[in-house]
Specification:
Elements (H helix, E strand, L loop, with lengths): L2 E7 L5 H4 L12 E5 L17 H13 L3 H4 L20 E3 L11 E2 L17 H10 L22 H13 L21 E3 L3 E3 L2
Length: 202
């Protein structure tokens, strides 16, 4: 498993700033390692037809290759992914504006992409899941998934996208509601990373 360096960023200016000393945000960073490649969970018996197994295996391969678990598995940003809840979303978010320019950046939390009907994608249509993967569009097309690297997936073949959809439908549904998005200027009450480099201490 390849690891990369992950840093923490503090929530507030340190006491030195209040005393008039120049504030260097790098003083508040702590080095961590993040899991960037996570095994895709296997399909669950009874959730797929045996004739689809080859396509599901292809989907599992693609989900692992695209490192979906590194964002959508809780704890992965900390280097300790919770493999009892793979792909069930993260309680650590991703800032889509810079926390070094704004004390309270906009934050989204990688969603649950297991087929749970209440907290995951169980009620999504195949087309909605495909649009999320290939175009970064939310369930009802109302909001672009700002941190989803869909631009890199936009030219995936229909067969590959269909394999991912079928695979995600075949895995165990896990109930896990991630925190709601945080708008710019609002205080995040859960930690977040900034493009895999900075993580808040909040």
């Amino acid at each position: 498993m390849h690891n990369f360096v992950l840093f923490w960023v503090s929530a507030f200016v340190v006491a030195g700033c209040a005393s008039g000393a120049a504030y260097d945000p790098l003083d508040d960073y702590e080095e961590l390692e993040s899991a960037t490649a996570i095994d895709a969970p296997g399909p669950e018996a009874g959730r797929y037809s045996p004739i689809d197994r080859d396509m599901i295996d292809r989907g599992a391969y693609l989900v692992e290759l695209l490192a979906c678990g590194s964002c959508h598995t809780n704890g992965a940003f900390d280097g300790v992914p919770d493999m009892s809840r793979p792909l069930a979303g993260s309680d650590t978010g991703i800032a889509w504006t810079s926390p070094l320019q704004s004390e309270h950046p906009g934050v989204v939390y990688p969603p649950n992409i297991t087929p749970d009907e209440e907290t995951g994608i169980g009620r999504w249509s195949d087309a909605q899941i495909a649009d999320a993967v290939r175009a970064g569009v939310g369930q009802h097309g109302s909001r672009r998934l700002v941190t989803m690297p869909w631009q890199g997936y936009a030219k995936m073949t229909d067969d590959d996208v269909d394999a991912i959809v079928l695979y995600l439908r075949s895995i165990k549904p896990i109930k896990h509601k991630v925190p709601d998005p945080v708008e710019v200027g609002e205080k995040a009450h859960k930690p977040f990373v900034y493009f895999g480099v900075y993580r808040s201490k909040r």
